[in-house]
Write a structure and sequence with these properties.
- The structure is a homodimer of 578-residue chains.
- By secondary structure, the first copy, chain A, is of the alpha/beta class.
- Chain A contains 18 helices and 11 strands.
- Chain A has an 8-stranded parallel barrel, surrounded by 9 helices.
- In chain A, β1, α3 and β2 form a beta-alpha-beta unit.
- In chain A, α3 runs antiparallel to α12 and α10 packs across α11.
- Chain A is elongated.
- β9 of chain A pairs antiparallel with β9 of chain B, so a sheet runs across the interface.
Chain lengths: 578, 578
């Protein structure tokens, strides 16, 4: 006999308990084991994992297409031997941590840095060492550990520390990063009229002098990998930028990063800025140009790509696009755009125009989840690539297409970014909801083992439409099965929750009493304690259904991906306050 | 005597209760009164509200700059008298409602449509009438009501219904919208090789025939405002698009919408597509070209703007960028980009290149909140323009800049999109956290009425840094005040929570018992019931502190904007399941 604890069921529990009470569980327990890099473990030898899969317009079956990750040119500051190679500079730990409300512990930073190395980012900006002793310690720890964990292919990420353009900041940054195999100092000063006048209270000439002195000082410390950023370059006078940038190249800067600090530029405007800088800055061919685009108008990814189109060969970005205000360019968006379109749409700069990175995208999903969990910065369901809905299809027309051929509505496979689609929901990320057609419902039921005659399917579908109109979030497999069972008069095969009482508080032990009516029409009840009230309810139900019957399918939570995400965010948020 | 119930305090309550139990409160009670358009009210005369404020690079004080909204050219299907005017087509109620997990009631749709009219969108796509009787009824209701509520300046939104390219769909769509003053039918068929072969199983010739028949049929019903979309145009052969589009223009289509259905295009690629279509489609000058860009690579806004750069004069978008998978172009991003840069960066198409819309951006924030609440599709904190962090500044350097001049890090004022900054947090959206400097802390304390001597400020600042390192989410005013009070040995002026017990369940009434130690060192306790366990706790605390002392400041919740958002989302999600 097949027993199902169905959707309406779990919804009742969830609804009356406000499931989020999982906030009681210590955060550590809520973390997926996948993230649990043992604290302080030193990994001396690391290898990149297998090649991910891609779907592109040419291939009918996304799984048939192998994406061949090309090898990474040797790292030399200020020079890339292959002009088509684009360096990925991740600043999740610096600009990302500046997200209002996000604060990471040193241990969390170390774990994220290790994940970024697995992902294969070329440069990790680990923090702003002068900001606080904790910041310094975190950067130093990452430099000493992750900055020395060399992969089989010789790859080890550059570890970078940020500093304002003064000796004290720079010295502190250098002390933090110098233990890495490849240390970099990133120094900056603002160059826009409004910043120089209102914030710095300096003349343009003074700003040039400060910039040159900063780079010279960094070099004098023994650092040969120096990045310089003219802050607010997107609103700076290009003629002034030529002067500043030419001067810092002469002083020894090897990477010139062009920040659109306030997210002010249109993509073609920012692309053109990169172009004219490369044409007019003296010594431009001796350095790598870089982009750093803020997202105030939602254009950070587009602007970064426009930079690459015009010859930038380092793109700064963050996981999930977090950062000050509306955040930064999303690493996953930038990287997947280059992976899908890099060889077709980027002609015009140096090289052949067939751009590529060495990022291994299969690590994108776990990295995204780790960053969102540790920082508390959730992704909206419709966040590109890593949002809970990014590979979900709702309308009947889209679902029909997905069943016939996944490439109709997907330009990459979820597996390519490390998201396993599994067998659930027609294997096609289809949400069965009010917009779904008979084909999608019938297909899913077949997969669940219910081959229905047309009349029966029509009856189930009619009932499905009624329920779906009212049910936000769509129907789960259990709900679908319940509809079939209802039609067959088999509804007494289900367990029903008939009573629930929960008690919890500051000092008491969370306790739940649960009463359930079994498929044999016998009512059972039990009390249980737990780490939190929901846990207590789960344990009580476990006890009731676990001893008396054999279960084939037992699902308590009918919450969907999107809701899970918000739960996680909330639980962490509460944890932060304690 | 000033009494404060501080941050640590409320955090304890929130933490131990998992505040999300607010899910108990009926959703209706949780809605802000601001949204509560009285059900069914017919508004016969409507006026646009006052002119919003803008900050741009030129102005030092954002509040000094008045943005003059230009008047809207008369609405004529297929023609815009001013070639610089860009129509905004909102599809929140159609593509947006296709967000996996989002389902709107007819009443919610009507309220959103009214809000879109206040915002001033030119066209409201109200739904897909054939999809279900509820969908039909909702579109008809909007057409009959909002489609007839003419504003003082003659503006009334076009009401549009979607239909596949077959007579049954089209007839249903027409029946739904024809009651509007300005009804439009939007019909579509896919034109990419993969869609025609795998999904439609039609030859290109058959597709052209179906498209032409659909437009001809729509016209035969008496509709003179017909939009046609070649689905998946972003992956279609341009030569084939020339043929289809030329044919439908001849048949009577007045708007040609070019969808990048799978979010496949780079901005310059999509811009070029619009350009070559305008150059090669016969009769292109007799129609309005439109963009519809999905966000799978995070480029929807950039692609829409690239379309405008190349002559598209209708941009399709949704509030908060919701929609299938990774969603659609965000109305707020598209509109604010044009508001800030439309007159500078869009030369090259028809007209003078000084583009503008008639959107009144001061309604953006309330509309965004309404849509996110009704659909359950939350915005991430770093969502551009409408995210909780979009106008928040975290790093010390940025906060210093904001205090000196807001234009250093803001390209538009929050007031311009209807977000009132208020006096909190230095009036500059500054989050005081671990990255904050002495200047920001001192400034905020001064605003709170604490003018401290340098020694005292140093001591408070040192303590602030210690607390901020550990406190994700930054410090609230109450926390800051607590630090000052601590330094002065006045900590016994606070209430302390000494005991808390909560009981709740399926049938029982949520009950809380709260014990508190007052500033007079007397312990009081009380039990209270509530609509949910958190509500019960709030009420109990209300009773304790309300009767025995006079309060100047009483804040229970120290959750920040971002967390509120996730709470709201969760509460709704649970509500959906009941």
């Amino acid at each position: 006999m097949k027993l199902t604890i169905g959707g309406a069921f779990s919804a009742a529990i969830v609804g009356s308990l406000g499931i989020a009470s999982d906030a009681f569980t210590p955060l550590a327990l809520q973390r997926k084991p996948a993230f649990a890099t043992p604290s302080g473990t030193v990994i001396s030898k690391r290898t990149h994992v297998s090649i991910p899969l891609f779907s592109t317009i040419e291939e009918v079956d996304p799984k048939a297409a192998l994406y061949t990750r090309r090898s990474r040119p040797e790292y030399i500051p200020g020079h890339i031997s292959d002009p088509d190679y684009v360096r990925i500079f991740d600043t999740t730990l610096r600009d990302g941590e500046q997200s209002p409300g996000a604060t990471l512990t040193s241990q969390e930073k170390l774990e994220i840095a290790r994940m970024l190395a697995k992902l294969g980012v070329d440069i990790i900006e680990a923090g702003f060492p002068i900001a606080s002793p904790d910041d310094f310690a975190a950067v130093k720890d990452i430099a000493d550990k992750v900055g020395n964990e060399v992969f089989d292919d010789g790859y080890v990420p550059v570890i970078c520390g940020l500093s304002r353009a003064n000796p004290k900041d720079i010295e502190r940054a250098w002390d933090a990063v110098k233990g890495a195999k490849r240390p970099r100092i990133h120094t900056f000063i603002a160059t826009s009229k409004i910043h120089m006048e209102s914030k710095l209270n300096k003349t343009p000439e003074e700003v040039i002098e400060i910039a040159v002195n900063a780079v010279t000082f960094a070099k004098s410390l023994g650092c040969n990998d120096i990045e310089f950023s003219p802050e607010d370059a997107g609103r700076s006078d290009p003629e002034f930028l030529y002067k500043v940038l030419s001067a810092v190249i002469e002083a020894g800067a090897t990477t010139l990063n062009i920040p659109d600090t306030t997210g002010w530029n249109m993509p073609w405007e920012f692309g053109n800025l990169i172009k004219i800088l490369r044409e007019n800055v003296k010594g431009a061919d001796k350095v790598v140009f870089s982009t750093h685009c803020q997202n105030d108008l939602g254009l950070a990814t587009a602007n970064s790509l426009a930079g690459a189109l015009n010859g930038a060969r380092q793109l700064e970005c963050t996981i999930n696009g977090i950062g000050e205000r509306a955040g930064n360019a999303s690493l996953e968006e930038v990287v997947m755009s280059l992976a899908l379109k890099g060889d077709k749409q980027f002609e015009g700069g140096p090289g052949t125009g067939k751009l590529y990175t060495a990022i291994n995208p299969v690590h994108i999903t776990p990295t995204s989840k780790m960053v969102s969990e540790y920082t508390g910065m959730i992704c909206q369901p419709h966040k590109a690539i890593v949002g809970a809905n990014a590979f979900q299809h709702e309308s009947g027309i889209h679902q029909d297409g997905m069943i016939k051929n996944k490439s109709t509505y997907e330009i990459m496979s979820p597996e390519s970014i490390g998201l396993m689609r599994g067998d659930a929901q027609s294997g096609a990320g289809i949400v069965l909801g009010k917009h779904s057609g008979r084909n999608a419902v019938g297909t899913r039921l077949k997969e669940l083992g219910y081959v229905l005659e047309p009349d029966k399917l029509n009856a189930v579908f009619a009932r499905f439409k009624e329920v779906a109109e009212k049910r936000k979030g769509g129907l789960e497999d259990e709900d679908l099965e319940a509809l079939v069972v209802d039609q067959a008069g088999l509804s007494n095969m289900m367990w029903r929750l008939t009573g629930l009482q929960v008690s919890t508080g500051m000092s008491g032990i969370p306790t739940a009493t649960v009463k359930m009516l079994g498929p044999d029409m016998v009512e059972r009840y039990v009390a249980s304690t737990g780490t939190g009230p929901v846990d207590a309810v789960y344990k009580a139900i476990d006890q009731i259904v676990g001893v008396s019957v054999e279960l084939e399918n037992y699902s308590l939570s009918s919450v969907n991906e999107g809701i899970d995400v918000s739960f996680a965010a909330k639980a962490m948020a509460l944890n932060q306050h304690r």
